[in-house]
Specification:
The structure is a homodimer of 439-residue chains.
Chain A (H helix, E strand, L loop, with lengths): L2 H8 L1 E2 L9 H14 L5 E2 L6 E5 L2 E4 L4 E4 L12 H11 L11 H11 L8 E5 L2 H16 L4 E4 L8 H4 L15 E4 L8 H17 L7 E5 L16 H9 L3 E5 L24 E4 L10 E5 L1 H10 L10 H16 L2 H22 L3 E7 L2 E6 L9 H13 L2 E2 L1 E3 L5 E4 L7 H17 L1
Parallel strand pairs in A: 5-15, 7-8, 7-9, 9-10, 10-11
Antiparallel strand pairs in A: 1-2, 3-4, 4-5, 6-12, 11-12, 13-14, 14-17, 16-17
Helix pairs in contact in A: 3-10, 4-10, 5-9, 7-8, 11-13
Chain lengths: 439, 439
């Protein structure tokens, strides 16, 4: 079991021991275990039952309102009325597959592609980020003729067989996966780009010495599961250059940073002023409606389609398109990218101020409304996962939802819905300060 | 290119040649190609733009109403108001992942599992049948320690990398896939079960002689893509016994036959009076809302979870559960299983009557509202794919939607929404008779 799994387990309920729980909750959990079985994992040592969502808030079955600092899927706000009504209208009108023409599916594709750098002009719609990454890997192999992939050490790219192989945060134990090489997450300081590229170079060399060769590096462009590494802007450029030098493709996984979260445009890779070879997307794309996509150069897609038929039954349906369109509407109408920048800056500055007062805070990193907050031991400044866990549970009692990330699980992963305002930031900062003072 | 690919291409638009098309359609197709690229495949030589769906009907942009004899995803009827309103209500109230408790997700899981044979008491919810099959393969490998799979020659099980490997109908060319063995589809007559099991035995032996071993056979329990083989009931039993004898698992892919279509219960495997080791589902589960599932023995899921973390972001969300619940409501309230049996029988009898008059009809097979209709040459009774294609296009001009299947593409795949009545059956039979008389 990896370090990251250990911490995650600490903040989760996945067993059967409900001793000390309210009887009603214990009964619910027993039923849950009886149906969802071993794959049932719930947040928190004592799980929460939710009954309603609205904007940045979730409401539990006991009438408590939680400030949601964690859920990045309902990215334009829980149950946003514009998205909900777009889905409601379309699902009552037409919901077919893309083998018939339907105006809304095609106009959504055009609209989305207008926000992606020019050479990437084709879109394949899927239902999930996992399906998108699964397809991206195969396109990369078709184009390069190689089958080796490089990812960061605590990366998560999805749940299919092919994508689980490149998602070390899902590994239990240390499986031998011959076609995958893991490299360290970017460093938080020093020559970030140079170090990252040097690690990549080693991994490329290793893969080139195998029968697999080097097909692609795939990076979540803000390194969400690794603990959030956003700075300095542009640090991924040497890695991109090196990748191309070795005939590989650079895949930007925008499933987490995409759709405005980083506050500097629609995509996380924009922060690095580069054009990836393939862009994948998912989670926030439909604000919870299951949709994902692969954006790719036409010649790359043509190459893939020469050897494999690809069709996705639900992908790109009129309802998915309606949801996707509505999400883009809200991002534009409510100026959520600018809000992510502004509110994110207030939040980050506030956290930096707390850092200067509380030595338990080891680092503050991020961009827009995607911030990583490290906790360290008071003695020797090393990663303090139990303390992060303590903070997460304390925040829960103060009705604030949050979770952890990173190889050592000592990093709070802060990524609220993008309608999060400076008022919410103040509430979070005040509460965190209070908890830190009492800890 | 396999035989099945050749026929599919005949009834599809996937190139760029729009000569002779109405200018507006040609413009739309050029735009479509510019966005969806090489992966854009449309039904029919001249595609149709749809604008509305209702019950068994789809309406195109020219105001034509089509009787839908083909689309099995909107299984309880296009845009069914009960399903649409359930989705609309839930998407406005709460849409989160399953790491929080939510009553509707858990009650849906319980309700669905109450319809599956007892030892299969755990459910993992996914977003697609592809994700479900991808997971099922891994569970089978965890349980058996083997990695070889057996499927039928024109099978389709989905679109991820792992599942494409076991979907020969997606192959272009004849790729060498070392861990997969293809066996012929069931025969239409003779000792169906014995022949199928004998072919399976050969394939098992072959896999056992490799490093992969025999993990599982996965069958669509009505063999949709192979051309629909339903009879005699029970013919899969010898294959199941043989599979267990060799330590393998039997996976029933209910993505196409499931949710009442075969008219004899909720599942296609029920027709064979057997209990599979794993059941997968998808397409009709949410009537178009992207959802799928894996139903499995608890001990098998536990085994898988020991080695791999599995979480599906959108899978089992309250909205998916609302859609799934509404689908089960409609199946019950409108007695769609009984209707599938009754209307299916009228349709099948009518087709058999046509067969006795028109030697071009080589075979009628199926159960409930899933019927395969073979066309053959008048001279030597061999598969006649061009004639099937002719019929498909003729039916289109009569505003009836249909498609083909099977290794030779000479089989009409008849699978209308389950609200299809005997009146619709009469309309189809009369139209087909007319076309056959004029052909």
């Amino acid at each position: 079991m990896s370090a990251s799994k250990q911490i995650l387990a600490l903040n989760r309920f996945e067993g059967t021991d409900t001793s000390g729980f309210p009887p009603e909750l214990a009964k619910r959990l027993a039923k849950r275990r009886a149906t969802f079985g071993a794959s049932s994992v719930l947040f928190y040592e004592q799980p929460i039952e939710m009954v309603r969502g609205e904007g940045v808030y979730l409401f539990d079955s006991n009438g408590n309102r939680y400030l949601d600092m964690y859920n990045n899927v309902p990215s334009v706000g829980h149950c946003h009325p514009h998205v909900a009504s777009a889905i409601a209208a379309q699902v009552a009108r037409l919901n077919i597959n893309t083998r018939y023409l339907s105006r809304i599916s095609e106009s959504y594709a055009e609209r989305l592609l207008s926000h992606v750098p020019a050479p990437l002009s084709n879109l394949v719609m899927t239902c999930t980020g996992s399906e998108a990454n699964d397809l991206a890997l195969r396109i990369a192999s078709s184009v390069t003729g190689k089958h080796g992939f490089i990812v960061t050490r605590a990366a998560y790219h999805g749940n299919t067989e092919a994508v689980t192989a490149i998602s070390p945060s899902s590994y239990k134990g240390a499986p031998h996966i011959p076609h995958v090489r893991l490299i360290p997450a970017p460093s938080a300081e020093g020559d970030v780009g140079g170090t990252f590229a040097a690690n990549l170079a080693t991994a490329i060399k290793e893969l080139e010495a195998t029968e697999y060769g080097f097909a692609a590096i795939i990076v979540d462009s803000i390194f969400s599961s690794d603990g959030i590494f956003a700075d300095p802007p542009g640090f991924l450029q040497p890695a991109l250059a090196l990748t191309h030098q070795h005939g590989g493709l650079f895949i930007a996984d925008e499933v987490q940073p995409g759709f405005g979260r980083t506050g500097g445009g629609l995509w996380g890779f924009g922060r690095h002023s580069l054009t990836p070879d393939i862009v994948t997307m998912g989670k926030p794309m439909g604000n919870g409606y299951p949709m994902g996509g692969v954006v790719v150069r036409p010649e790359h897609l043509t190459r893939f389609c020469e050897t494999t038929g690809y069709f996705n039954t639900f992908g790109g349906s009129p309802v998915a398109a309606a949801a996707g369109n509505a999400v883009l509407d809200v991002i534009e109408d409510e100026e959520l990218i600018a809000n992510a920048a502004t509110s994110g800056q207030v939040l980050k500055s506030g956290l930096e101020a707390l850092k200067s007062r509380f030595p338990r805070i080891g680092g503050v990193r991020g961009a827009g409304l995607f911030i990583g907050l490290d906790f360290v031991t008071p003695d020797d400044n090393t990663q303090d996962q139990p303390f992060a866990s303590h903070i997460i549970n304390q925040l829960k009692t103060h009705h604030i939802l949050i979770g952890a990330a990173g190889l050592y699980g000592h990093t709070l992963k802060i990524r609220p819905p993008l309608c999060f305002t400076t008022t919410h930031a103040d509430q979070f900062l005040t509460t965190l300060e209070q908890i830190l003072e009492q800890s």
